[in-house]
Amino acid sequence: MRKAVIALVTLIAAADGAAAQTAWANKLFGNSLTHDFGTVARGARLKHTFTMTNIYKVPLQITHVGVECGCVSAAPTTKLLQPSETAQFHVNMDAARFSGAKTVRIHITVGPEFVSTATLAVSAFARQDVVFNPGEIDFGSVAKGQSPTRFIDVEHAGNAHWRVSEIVKNAAAPFDLKVEQLPQKVSSYVTVGYRIFATVKPNAAPGAFKQEILLKTNDPQASVITFHIGGSIRTSLNVAPNPVNFGSLKAGEAETTRIVVGSGGRPFRIVAIDGLEEGWTMPIPDRSVATHILELRVQPRVAGPLRKQITLRTDLDNEAATVTVEGTVAP
Fold first, then answer.
1. Which residue segments constitute the domains of the chain, with CATH numbers given?
2. How far apart are CA 271 and CA 294, in angstroms?
3. pTM above 0.90, yes or no
4. Could you give the percent of the chain with pLDDT greater than 70?
5. Which among 321, 308, 299, 186 is positioned nearest to 240, based on CA atoms?
6. Per residue in 19-36, is it b (16+ CB within 10 Å) or e — as a string?
7. Contacting residues for 89 by C-beta, under 8 A, at least 6 apart
8. How far is CA 114 from each of CA 21, 81, 85, 111, rounded to the nearest angstrom?
9. C-alpha–C-alpha distance, residues 87 and 76, integer Å
10. Average of pLDDT values for 126-150?
């Protein structure tokens, strides 16, 4: 779908008062200015990402972000957007800090030359009889090939017949789920619950992940409740230095440096190197060891900024490492 690029100066000249200025800032978020998390358990950590795009012909800077409740935090991935540039705006809502229905507005001011404020809103209904502990599962950073397990408890107080009938996750999620029913607790009321285990798959691909998990229940007032599982899988290969910065180079002249590639103790072989330009060399060792010291020789031919990526392919679970080479080439 073709997007029109609007001249910001023209738009402001045609605008009428503060309401119109707010309108043009809202357009950074298209038609997605609100998000409803629905009914959630007390203690749930709720996450949503809005997308903002600079549709104007001048750079825009986010100069202020304000929220109306301490139960919400919000932050952009960048504070400066060039024309046509897109960024993510991450919003977190803590359902442990409110009960019942809650709507929180987030005010994002952009400028500095032309000033306007966009308003986003997130909503949720936090039930006090359903509790998550902890509010989410966060694996943090996991080395590729490892399979740690974390768990979250969901409990319902006051209804001995409350049940979770189904757990729904994305089929491509890099983890497996298992559930166990917790023993009932009986005091002045009955508490029933489940412990949900998540285990990272040993073949999970490197990169960050965040998945929403849906729990379908037999409660007609809250047939679906949700929580999140997140983390990142880091490659088992470490490259240093990375990036490789040659600084100032001269066209036609060769420079050499060393790069260390390690696996943390597992022997591996480098089977191929992709991305070498004409005049560049990096001999491939003929042995399998836990640490390789490679010699990179570059001979740039064209003056100007240098930025190139080289991919080292290995037999360590077919893993590859990317090395960035940069510098400035003088004539």
1. 8-126 (2.60.40.10), 136-234 (2.60.40.10), 238-330 (2.60.40.10)
2. 13
3. no
4. 93
5. 321
6. eebeebbbbbbeeebebe
7. 29, 49, 50, 51, 52, 74, 75, 76, 77, 108, 120
8. 9, 14, 17, 5
9. 7
10. 90
